[in-house]
């Protein structure tokens, strides 16, 4: 009889987590157990859909004449994205991200915040830090250059929480990297054949 190797503590359920943003060039917090400090700003409550880590890749296969299987494949596109829905739609940080407006432009005057949406938006790249927590498993994702590239409609109604649903695209930094991982995970036990 074959024994199937399994370890429940090596499985992950995104039970909790958070997201922060900071200006480009801000260093990574570096550890999902460390509270991010200024200039990192919290995005606030995220919907129970959690964090979706996206992989969008294309490849080109090369099949020689006379073969039916390729002998080589090259990656022609490799895109990393993160999707969240921010529920705190009146938080200054979330509004700043959603409308591509600096936080300073959202300072109220006599209790009133006024701003305009431009018909010609410019790039709004920022650094992002995401964490996923599940007991001893703690995952950190640092995106040194990210930008919200997709925004969904926002529904305002009595029986639904309004939210800013975003897709954040990770761009290469000066080192050519898009995402840096900082994870605390249980060790994988040595394989003993059972």
For this entry, give a set of tags.
4% helix, eight-stranded antiparallel beta sheet, 194 residues, single chain, mainly beta, 37% strand
Tell me the layout of helices and strands.
Elements: E1 16-22, E2 41-42, E3 52-62, E4 72-86, H1 92-99, E5 126-134, E6 137-151, E7 164-170, E8 180-184
Antiparallel strand pairs: 1-2, 1-5, 3-4, 4-7, 5-6, 6-7, 6-8
Describe this structure in words.
The protein starts with 15 loop residues before the first strand and ends in a 10-residue tail after the last strand. It has 194 residues and is mainly beta. Strands 1, 2, 3, 4, 5, 6, 7 and 8 form an eight-stranded antiparallel beta sheet that branches. A hairpin with a 2-residue loop joins strand 5 and strand 6. The chain is built from one helix and eight strands, in the order ββββαββββ.
Question: What's this entry about, in short?
Answer:
With 194 residues, the protein is mainly beta. The protein has one helix at residues 92-99, and strands spanning 16-22, 41-42, 52-62, 72-86, 126-134, 137-151, 164-170, 180-184.
Distance between the termini: 10 Å
Structural class: mainly beta
* Radius of gyration, whole Å: 21 Å
Q: What is the average of the pLDDT values?
A: 94
Helix content: under 10%
Strand tally is 8
């Amino acid at each position: 009889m074959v024994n199937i190797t399994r370890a429940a503590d090596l499985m992950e359920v995104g039970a909790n987590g958070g997201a922060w943003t900071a200006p480009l060039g801000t260093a990574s917090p570096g550890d999902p157990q460390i509270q991010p400090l200024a200039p990192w700003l919290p995005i606030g409550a995220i919907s129970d859909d959690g964090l979706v880590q996206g992989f969008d890749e294309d490849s080109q296969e090369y099949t020689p004449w006379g073969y039916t299987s390729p002998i080589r494949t090259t990656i022609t596109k490799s895109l990393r994205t993160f999707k969240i829905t921010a529920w705190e739609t009146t938080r200054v940080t979330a509004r700043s991200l959603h409308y591509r407006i600096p936080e300073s432009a959202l300072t109220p005057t006599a209790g009133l915040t006024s701003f305009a949406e431009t018909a010609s938006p410019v790039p709004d790249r920022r650094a992002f830090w995401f964490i996923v927590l599940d007991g001893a498993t703690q995952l950190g994702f640092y995106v040194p250059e990210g930008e919200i590239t997709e925004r969904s409609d926002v529904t305002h109604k009595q029986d639904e929480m309004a939210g800013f649903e975003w897709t954040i695209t990770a761009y290469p930094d000066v080192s050519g990297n898009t995402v840096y991982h900082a994870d605390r995970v249980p060790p994988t036990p040595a394989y003993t054949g059972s």
